[in-house]
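Session log. Operator J.P. requested a structure for one protein chain; no other inputs attached. Running the standard single-chain path with token output.
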Amino acid sequence: MTATKEPLVIGLFEKRTFSIQYIVADPETRRCAIIDPVLDYDEKAGATATRSADALLDLVAEHGLTVEWILDTHPHADHFSAAPYLKSRTGAPTAIGAKVVAVQKLWRDIYHLPDFPTDGSQWDRLFADGDTFAIGTIPVRVMHSPGHTLASVTYVAGNAAFIHDTLFMPDSGTARCDFPGGSASALWRSIQAILSLPPETRLFTGHDYQPGGREPLWQSTVAEQARQNIHLTKAGSEDEFVAVRTARDRTLPMPKLILHALQVNINGGALPPPEANGKRYLKIPLDALPDAVWG
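Structure written below.
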């Protein structure tokens, strides 16, 4: 039996949004992918910066790597994607799950963008469930993992899976499902598919909110999640999980950047074009999420 390849994984914690950006490298060829890169954004000043993305590029250079892919797991609701910036610096293609077109159609209407293209053409490649590609010599399989969003995917690269907003660390539970297009039932099924991977599979989450003020963590295993995840141990069935997840979601205010970020991220991370005065402007719909909890 051929041993499962083990990629080198470097996680970089972005403390403003509690996000983890990843470099996933093939030690044999020194080729790598960047997963879920963050474009820095200060909503108070309306300012953007590339410090977090540049830190990724510094690590790529430090380890002597070549960027082969720039991947997002889904259109993020809490930070801007730095995929276009990193493509401009590396020439690597960008990719996301194929169901992003459904998210584009949903949010195009929320933002009232009648001419916005909803065909996924903002990315170089759209991955369907079961698609495969490679990072150097490491095979990667794409799993459609809806629930948090319609478009969420998991990238299984050798013995590592990048699960973003499905499972958090075991002491933090699971991702919310109350965004437009979210579904707790779908998330339960996505989690079961992830837990069907080999028990020793390394799982890398996309956020860590540091419960109790502990240091940020982002790596677990399938076995650890199945045994210790605080939401899964409370729910032995789909119905019980849906009840637990739905009750918690009813208490959560929307992420502070959701209306800022999604208009950028459904556009592949591209910022709005400059207007006649050379400035870029975001469009914030008022009262578009009437059932949202006030924060």
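Operator note: The domain at 8-265 is CATH 3.60.15.10 (Metallo-beta-lactamase; Chain A).
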